[in-house]
Structures are given as C-alpha cells and as structure tokens.
C-alpha cells in the first residue's frame, strides 16, 4: 500500500507542483494519475521512490515513511518504467533486463536466465534478447522497459507515461499486456498518463489532478464518468463520457436475435451474414448479393459499448455477437441495446 498524507512539494523557484495531496493506493491494484500537463503527476510519482522528497507531509510505502529508508534500499522494492523505456543503448536487450539482478549480486548465468524468463513474460521472442535497443520497435522497447522494471520482482511498480511514445494500436496492445501481466503478478502499480482513455481503461482507481497540483477527484473509472466531482473533471473526462461509461456496463441483458447466415454471398432480397466453415463472421451480403464491408463484432457478456458500436457500425443495422471462439452467436439492433441502457437507468 502507498499512502500520501497531506503531501506538498514546493520547488526552490517557488513552484508548487503538488498541493496537499492525500490518497491511498491499495496494494495489488493499478492506480492511474491523470491530468493536464504540469499538474504534478510526475512529481507525485517520484516522491514514492525518493527521486524527489516532499516539502511537507508524508509518503508511506507499506506503512513506512519513505524518508526513513535510504533511497537505494527503497528502490530495490520499487520498479520504475518511463517513456521511451530509458534502455542502455550499448547493452543487449537481455543484458538490459539482467542489469538489476546483476547489481544485486546474482551470477551472470542466473541473471541472464531470469532476464530470458522476463522477456517471455512480457511477450517478446527470445531471439530479441541478442539485439540492441535501437534494433527494436517502440512497442518492443517499452516491453523491455517493463521486463527490466520487473527483474528484481518489486512489489511496487511506478510507470510514468510508459506508452505515450507509441502509436495508438500498439498502445492498446501494451495496455492489454499490462492488464494480463497484472492479473498474474498482482503488483501495486501507479501509472501516470495525460490520456483519460488510457486511464479509464487500465485504472482500478483514477486520480484526476488539476493545475496547481491539486487532486480534483479520486474514484473508480465508472464513477468518474458517471459522477464527475466538478466542472473541471467533467470537461477533462470529455463530452462523450456518457458513451464511454458504457464500457463498464455488461451486455448480458441484451436479448440476442438471429440473422440469416450463408457460406457464399448470393442475391437473396435480404441482408445475410456470411460465415466461414467454423461459423466465424466474414461480412455482410446486401440484398443484391454484394458484400459490404464494415460492422464490428462484440463478444457475448462484454461491455455494452461494444454491442452498441457493433449495431451502429453494421451495414445491415444488426450488430453481430460472437462466442468465446469467435463464432457467430446472434445479432442485436441499436434499439434493443438502448432499451437495455434505458431500463437500467431505473
Ligand atoms: N525541478 C523543478 N523545479 C521547478 N519546477 C518544477 C521542477 N519540476 C517540475 N516543476 C514544475 O512543477 C509542476 C508539476 O510538474 P510535473 O512534472 O509533476 O507535472 P506533470 O503533471 O507530470 O506534467 P506532464 O504531464 O507535462 O509530465 C510544473 O509546473 C513543473 O513546471
């Protein structure tokens, strides 16, 4: 557990970067600090591993005031991941990851075999271990950064905008990977971002900061979207927050109907769903038999936002549901989805 108790940081030039911050980061959760540029997220994060010390107030890690622990000892229990990964350019990927175990006195063989395990854990093929950082893509470098931070198996992981230098598709992949890793590792993670979508996607709790280093709201994502504490939070989480909050409502209540399925498109005077031999949707055939691209799929039981998006994006007006194997399971209309949303409003 990490606790900030009335923590303020004033830099020598008088800038107040963090102002009276009090919050608790529960053990084994991902907490996200989000807010516009310059509102004190990084400063708050760095006060956890003593890269910055507070001017007043107390930061506790597992009940101990961090100021009572010398920085090297403290940092052995705290992994740190930054934007651009911060890898050593002249060391191979494997040796980058093995750095901390080596510094902790492990033999070279043991440190390297641990590093190889970690590369696998973050989803990188073993061959990449021999390369140098510059020979990897941005997304791969970030994975190496995560592997390196995990090398000493620290209970706490601090991540400062770790995925902001990669493109949106790779970024979503890295977010999924982090969630998968976390389900396995159960670390206490503090993650800094200025992207509200990233925050609500990966955070179990989200702390929204405003200018002047003030905490505006600290809540689970669904609550943040449904009940922003004030106008600042409402505008920061965005005007489409109503739609976004549908990510936290599951689609299980939506009755699934059926569409006509075919294996070869043909003119049939009605919309037909083309499926492959295993029943996986391939696209829609229009009444004249032409194949029309478009239409997302959603998994049964997934968030209702996916069901609505599937219906709205479908050329036939029918959103296609698939089972856990990706096979056609039924269709819904946008009207059906909206009725369920309305009825849950109570
Ligand atoms: N060493 C320093 N001396 C003086 N002011 C500083 C120093 N470091 C940070 N600041 C100021 O403190 C405030 C908070 O900075 P911080 O880096 O914590 O913000 P942030 O929310 O992480 O921003 P960003 O999203 O742009 O990284 C800013 O106004 C910044 O200019």
From TrEMBL:
<dbReference type="GO" id="GO:0005524">
    <property type="term" value="F:ATP binding"/>
</dbReference>
<feature type="domain" description="ABC transporter">
    <location>
        <begin position="2"/>
        <end position="237"/>
    </location>
</feature>
<dbReference type="InterPro" id="IPR003593">
    <property type="entry name" value="AAA+_ATPase"/>
</dbReference>
<dbReference type="InterPro" id="IPR027417">
    <property type="entry name" value="P-loop_NTPase"/>
</dbReference>
<keyword id="KW-0547">Nucleotide-binding</keyword>
<dbReference type="InterPro" id="IPR017871">
    <property type="entry name" value="ABC_transporter-like_CS"/>
</dbReference>
<keyword id="KW-0813">Transport</keyword>
<dbReference type="InterPro" id="IPR003439">
    <property type="entry name" value="ABC_transporter-like_ATP-bd"/>
</dbReference>
<protein>
    <submittedName>
        <fullName>ATP-binding cassette domain-containing protein</fullName>
    </submittedName>
</protein>
<dbReference type="Pfam" id="PF00005">
    <property type="entry name" value="ABC_tran"/>
</dbReference>
<comment type="similarity">
    <text>Belongs to the ABC transporter superfamily.</text>
</comment>
<keyword id="KW-0067">ATP-binding</keyword>
